[in-house]
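Why this split exists: single-chain examples teach little about how molecules sit against one another. For that reason, every record in the complexes split bundles all components of an assembly together and asks for one structure covering all of them. Below is a record exactly as it appears in the raw files.
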Amino acid sequence: MPTGTFQTTDIPEEEVDNVIANYKLDEPEKIEKIKQSNGRWTVIATFPGGDKL
Amino acid sequence: MNKLKLISVITGLFLSGCTAMKQFPEKSIDPVADLTKMDKHYATTLSAINAAKSEAERQKLRNEAIDQRLRVIDLHFNNFQNALAKEGVQTNFSVAVTQIGLGGVGAFVGNGTSQILSAVSGGLSGTQQAYDKSILLDKAMGALLKQMIASRKAILVKIYIGSNQDTRSYSLAAAMNDLDAYYYAGSIPGAIAATSTDATIKNSEAEIKLDDLRSNIFSKDESSILLQSYIRPPDGDSETDLNLENLNKLRDWLNASPLKGLPLQNFFSNEALRSHRESAITDLNIKPTQGE
């Protein structure tokens, strides 16, 4: 089980749902989706315990 | 090909000043004539596609050409694999042991204790050397073969996906390019190149630090597509139902690897982890599923 924070950056719009669904497989306590200035997305998944970014 | 043969081939190339010394490939001034001469199958298929009256017919012609080339590449690869196994180091090891044995028998002729002892010890050390070299070469060739199989599978996914697209999205030229990559992946230089693309991570697997993998730029290649299709068949889309058995197998593989603790999403999307994904594909025996 992952711990702490992980993220994927520069995600194209059409891939965001897949990325979020993949993170959910590991049961994070929180998922955030942030739009970047270039129109792409960053998704941040936070898991219990461990190190943060 | 054993080491001595390889060295003499490379030496021969340099001494003869042939293709290996040229800086550029040939340039064509008559592409139509050259194409017919160099790749008649491609030229014929392209003409037929251009003359086709419907997109369905164009796709059929393109996919027939892909299937023909795939089969031929696979047949040649199977022969190549068998040849590598037959000519390889196990034969060399056996020959080396036989030679040591003959030498050892000769040393018993004198009948003295010291001669017997030196024959035995000489035989053991010689056998040990032969064993070490042969078994190490065997392991290296085994690793390269494993890489070839994994890389070929990953490229096959791309070809199968392309063969389900229209000819504007996946042209005959694009298909041939992928088929060339498929062929190259099944070669020794191709396997070495694939192994060295993330050599830093491969060579220091014991030093993989999870903290270095907490953030990556999104990427998607044939290996990530195949793994996502494995857990959500047939296409890996998030709206498709999960195959829980496959998901658990992939999780178990990841937890037994140096990447334990990495979320699946980062495993799928980190460009630098391609060879690890290809290892998972090989170890879990994941096969691409041709689209319907």
